[in-house]
Each structure stands twice: as structure tokens, then as C-alpha cells.
Amino acid sequence: MSLRKFFLHNIMRRAESTNEDDTETESVDEDVTDSEESAHEKRVHFLGLPVRKFTYKRLPKKFLKFSFLILNGSAFLAGITATITSVWMLSDSKLMSRLFSQRLFVTILLLVGLFACSVSFIGIMAFVKKRRKFITVYILCHVLSLTFIFICAILSFSFFDKITQKIHNDMTSTIVNYHSLDWVTEAWDNTQKYLRCCGIWSFRDWDKYRMQIPHSCCSSTIEKCLNMSQEVSYQSGCLKDSIILLKSHIHSVSVSALLISIGLVVGLFLAFGIRRRFKTYQRD
């Protein structure tokens, strides 16, 4: 009986040890699967390929600081340049007296320059003073700017047709007063000299309104243009050239808006990182 009990006791101990090994292996397998799942969750897939998630936490502290300062310093200088340029253009009477109004684009440039100076200055002050309130205002300004650019991009599709129609209406309503109003004479002369054009559609528009072709339509030397005629005048009309110039302005504005949007996204990304650093500084 004693031998039988001894064998049964050994068999039970072996069974318990095997069960413990099984549970340990299962727990290890579960830990491995959990770690794999967590690692899989941290990965971001782009076009079916796993990509590591890029956050500001991966950036070195010095890189984050210098990038933030360089970005805002560049934005501040660019804003000052845009403000000075727009003020100079608005003060130029010849530039502003043309029939196709550049005042709108210059005013937009002025507002963008002032806004860039203000926001970048807030960002620099927030970094120097380590104020979370300033960096929060900085982030809100960036979010509002991105929202405003998105709304303007949607509304700009019908904007071009309205400006084109306004230019045509202004030319049609002012050409009849070319000799009677001084500002109309100056506007037409500046437009025709700058765009190298004549009339609305062509030089024939002046004959249509029973007026002599102005000397501002001269495409040759002064001696040949003493007696203006169709042979020495510009052949293209000012409406067509104005639309071409307007398209180039819109193209420049679109490229500028794209670059500004990229800068705003980068600044927003860095601002969140700086704000996170401010939290750690305050905890320490």
C-alpha cells in the first residue's frame, strides 16, 4: 500500500508541474500577443504599408525649439516685408489708378502681413516667457487661419467671374468719359501703357465711340505716334490682357496660400510640442 501511495503521489506532482508549465506558456504567449497587438496598434498604415507614427515626442528638444524660433522669426520678417510693400503700393497713385483694380490684392497682402507679424510675435513671446496662455492663443490663431483659407478656397471659384465682369463694366462705363474726366483719362492711359493694349476689345473701340486713338496706345516711337493711327497702335484689347494679368495674380495667390497653409500646419505641430514642454516645466 505504501508503494502504491508513493507512485500515485509522484504521478500527481508531475501532472501539477505540467499544468503549471502550460499556464506559464499560455501567459507568455498572451503577453507576446498583447505586445504584438500594441505594437501593431502604434503603427500607421499608408497604402497598405506599415509606417511608424510620427509625433512631436520623437523630436529632440533643441530641434523643436530652434525650428519653432526659426519658423516664427521668418514669418515675422516676411510679414514686415509684406506690410511695407503693400503700403508702398497703396501710396503709388499710378499703380492704383489703373482700370483693373489691384487694390484688393494689395489690401489682402497688407492684412496677411499684419496678421503674420502679430501671430509670430505672440509665438516668440510665448516661447521666451514660457506662457501657456500665449501658446494657446497662437494655436487658436493658426486653426482660425487654416479654416479661413479653406473657406476662401471654396468661395474663390465664383470670385474670378465676378471680378472679370466688374472690369468689363468699368471699362465700358468709363471709356465714354475719356476726354471729360481727368481721373478716367489717367486710368485709361496708365492701363494702356502698362498692359500695352488699346481699347476694350481692340483699337476699333475708340472709333466706335467717335474718339481719336489716344497716344497711350502708341506701340512705336514718339515721332511715328504724333499722328495716331491703327498702324502704330497696340492691336490687342485691354480686357483680354487684364484677364490674363488677373489669372497670374490668382495663380500667385493660390501658390502663396498653399505655402502659408504648409507653414501653418508645421507651426501648429511645433506649437503643440512646445505646449507639451511647458507642461513638463511647470510640473518640475
TrEMBL record:
<dbReference type="GO" id="GO:0005886">
    <property type="term" value="C:plasma membrane"/>
</dbReference>
<dbReference type="Pfam" id="PF00335">
    <property type="entry name" value="Tetraspanin"/>
</dbReference>
<feature type="transmembrane region" description="Helical">
    <location>
        <begin position="63"/>
        <end position="84"/>
    </location>
</feature>
<feature type="transmembrane region" description="Helical">
    <location>
        <begin position="255"/>
        <end position="274"/>
    </location>
</feature>
<protein>
    <submittedName>
        <fullName>CD63 antigen isoform X1</fullName>
    </submittedName>
</protein>
<keyword id="KW-0472">Membrane</keyword>
<dbReference type="InterPro" id="IPR018499">
    <property type="entry name" value="Tetraspanin/Peripherin"/>
</dbReference>
<feature type="transmembrane region" description="Helical">
    <location>
        <begin position="135"/>
        <end position="160"/>
    </location>
</feature>
<feature type="compositionally biased region" description="Acidic residues">
    <location>
        <begin position="18"/>
        <end position="36"/>
    </location>
</feature>
<dbReference type="InterPro" id="IPR008952">
    <property type="entry name" value="Tetraspanin_EC2_sf"/>
</dbReference>
<keyword id="KW-0812">Transmembrane</keyword>
<feature type="region of interest" description="Disordered">
    <location>
        <begin position="17"/>
        <end position="36"/>
    </location>
</feature>
<keyword id="KW-1133">Transmembrane helix</keyword>
<feature type="transmembrane region" description="Helical">
    <location>
        <begin position="104"/>
        <end position="128"/>
    </location>
</feature>
